[in-house]
Amino acid sequence: IPQRPRLTVLGTGYLGATHAVSMAELGYEVLGIDVDESKITKLADGQVPFHEPGLDEMLRRNLATGRLRFTTSYAEAADFGDVHFVCVGTPQKAGSLAADMRYVESAVVSLAPHLTRKALIVGKSTVPVGTAEWVEELVAQHAPAGIGVEVAWNPEFLREGFAVEDTLRPDRLVFGVKSDWAREMLENTYKGVYELGVAEDREVPTVVTDFPTAELVKVAANSYLATKISFINAMAEVSEVAGADVTQLARAIGYDVRIGNKFLRAGVGFGGGCLPKDIRAFQARAEELGVGHALRFLSEVDQINTRRREKAVELTAELVGELAGARIGVLGATFKPNSDDVRDSPAVAVTKLLAEAGAQVTVYDPQGIDNARRALPTVAYATSSVDAIRDADAVVVLTEWEEFRHADPVALGKVVTHRRVVDGRNCLDPAEWRAAGWEYRGMGRA
Ligand code: UDX
User: Which residues belong to any copy of the UDP-glucose/GDP-mannose dehydrogenase C-terminal domain (predicted)?
Assistant: First the structure.
């Protein structure tokens, strides 16, 4: 068993690129592979094809040492690697809740025939439970007989905007393995992470388990997080009719350490490339396994989330009277701050609903404009907050970027036609905005 296994990363999207760069940063030799030639060219040239704080610099540093390389050749990957990480996407299938597994299949089937010696194929993508067994079968069918390729499952928990941090300093590692060889291989693969933990006086707990548990950990964690957000958003719905303030309610229940104060921010809800698709794929898989009833609450979680988007539109309509023809300045397009990701973004969804109701919408986002323009080409885009809200009848804040949280309501008040603001993320100080003459509406704040 190599002390410092050579690693390949199959799929250089968000997860793969971050993983490849972070592992190289820890001193491993890493080869990233993708079928998308343009992605590989960019990465090899030191450019990260998405926005992630700190990743660009780390990529260039590790390219310069020669530890990190990129290729489109599976043959080269097979020849190079001891451990092959599968980091391809598992998007929602069109017209269904289920995950589309074609990229996992194609990565494994493309690599396996080229393998010439014992190696470990490690799944990292978020997948339906049972996938690791299926990957094992694919490997048995496509790898040369007798070389003893093994499979392991090692889910990734990184958050966008903190991806490098979460990879280098994970809360925990989960190894789904069938043999001591696979476990030791993973332990050596993550030695750099353990050592960093020791150096920083921080423990990195490891859960060594079977395939299905490792696969489930990931979707269970994301389902829990989505449920926590929808729970507080359900409390927001009740607060709105009861005359309560959900932000104070969240603060009060959050002091109970069993509940905790994280992920209790009420607003326009969750989006992104993970939580929405993961809770849907999980339900689809549970149905297949005959336990659909166990996860029926996740459909409720999804519906609460969708209703909050509609609520933000309602609040805007309430402020302006008639949406048709109203000029609305939207601040925020990404699904969360410090990201350029607009996948399933509540901000884009709300903007679309406003535009469909006839409002004239102009959007500003510090990083997400290019992606938003592609996702929603029918509205106008501005290059600053001030330009987005000029002459607006109402301002709608949909992503809690630092620059919006700290915006000066007095200065912004001079640019708009009517001082009306919908705070879709409860990220502004109502007292401050009201003092500057704004009519303020938050989420779950009667
Ligand atoms: C998530 C998980 O956190 C991560 O562990 C997993 O690996 C991938 O999915 P990410 O999608 O990057 O990460 O975003 P996250 O920070 O979890 O936020 C998800 C969404 O929930 C965002 O749209 C965010 O605005 C929203 N959210 C989060 C809330 O509405 N309220 C909260 O209290 C917290």
Answer: 329-430
State which ligand 1 atom lies nearest to the alpha carbon of 269.
Answer: 30
Phi-psi region of 251 (alpha: psi -120 to 50; beta: other; left: phi over 0): alpha
Number of residues that this document lists for the chain: 446
Task: Decide: 364 and 347 in contact? Cβ < 8 Å.
Answer: no
- The CA distance from 17 to 70, in Å, is 10
Please give the Cα distance from 375 to 370 (Å, whole number): 9
Topology of the domain comprising 247-273+307-442: Rossmann fold (3.40.50)
The CB of 264 under 6 Å from ligand 1? The reply is yes
> In this structure, are residues 131 and 281 in contact, taking their beta carbons and an 8 Å threshold?
no
What is the C-alpha radius of gyration for the chain, rounded to an integer number of angstroms?
24
Q: Where are the domains of the chain?
A: 7-209, 247-273+307-442
The separation between CA 335 and the C-alpha centre of its own chain, rounded to angstroms, equals 9
CA distance 30 to 77: 10
Range list of β-strands (E), 163-242: 173-176, 206-209
pTM for the full predicted model: 0.95
Compute, in angstroms, the gap from residue 275 CA to the centroid of ligand 1.
7
- H or E stretch including 63? helix 55-65
Counting atoms of ligand 1 from 1, which one is nearest the CA of 273? 11
Domains 7-209 and 247-273+307-442 share a fold: yes
Smallest CA separation from ligand 1 atom 1, residue: 159
pLDDT of residue 70: 98
pLDDT tens figures, 126-182: 999 999 999 999 999 999 999 999 999 999 999 999 999 999 999 999 999 999 999
Place of tokens 């080229």: 114
At the fourth CATH level, the homologous superfamily of domain 7-209 is: NAD(P)-binding Rossmann-like Domain (3.40.50.720)
DSSP 52: -
Q: Is 157 in the pocket of ligand 1 (CB under 6 A)?
A: yes
The tokens 């330009």 sit on which residue? Answer: 387
Using CA atoms, how far residue 364 sits from 36, 192, 369, 428, in Å, is 30, 41, 7, 17
- pLDDT (0 to 100) of residue 446: 79
